[in-house]
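Page 42, continued from yesterday. The earlier attempt failed because a stray header line got pasted into the input along with the sequence. Redoing it now with the clean sequence only.
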Amino acid sequence: MILSRKCQYAMRAIYEITLREGDWPVKSAEIAEAQAIPPRFLENILAQLKQGGFVDSKRGREGGYMLADRGRDVAVGEVIRFVRGSLVPVHCMTKRGEGRCEFEGDCPFHAMWERARDALAEVYDNTTFRDLIREREQEQD
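This time it went through. Structure tokens are written below.
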């Protein structure tokens, strides 16, 4: 499963906002620079993350972005699903049934695809952005 740049940028934005928790609100220009995200693209992503309830914003000269629920520890999987959709490794596993398989109901790969999906979900859903920050800090020590 390859994550789109948009999804990666959304994750980087949440990471940077979480990293700067004591300095909220964080200006989008600071997020863009720190995480190498094109500023115009970031604005669209932040608007989408705000709609999804992940971030909140404050207008004005002293404005910027912060996590919408300060006490909540956001899991990486939540952001991926919000931006990308499901974690399925192949289209035929989606509920929309894109790319219906001629072997539906008798696919020799189905159980393996389910295990792959579940393994990804296990990692993404049990990793929070604060976990990533702690891991990075431990690596730097």
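Notes: The two ends are 32 Å apart (CA to CA).
Reminder to self: strip header lines before submitting.
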